[in-house]
Amino acid sequence: MPRNLANELISREDFPANIETLATTMGAIFNYYGRRSICKMYATDYIDEADTSVIAGFIGEDTVKALDAFMAYLERS
Predict the structure, then answer these.
(1) Chain Cα centroid distance, residue 14
(2) What's the N-to-C CA distance of the chain in angstroms?
(3) Own/partner long-range contacts of 36-40 (Cβ < 8 Å, ≥24 apart)
(4) C-alpha atoms less than 13 angstroms from C-alpha of 37 in its C-beta half-sphere
(5) Which of 6, 7, 10, 57 is the most exposed place for a label (fewest CB within 10 A)?
(6) Which of 69, 48, 60 is nearest to 10 (CA)?
């Protein structure tokens, strides 16, 4: 899962070891939000219980809130 990969990379002691690790992490976060939005749009029984605290610690709580607000906007559209 992309969220698990992002959490694993962010939690490494040497994070970000290099630009490739940073790019992979950002890609995994982007992929996670993409998959999550698809699930929220098309699943009838989707419940979001994912812990995004590690991601929030990396990209910032405000950024996570902005992404969540954007996803809520997409759901209404």
Answers:
(1) 20
(2) 27
(3) 36/71, 37/71, 37/74, 40/71, 40/75
(4) 17
(5) 57
(6) 60
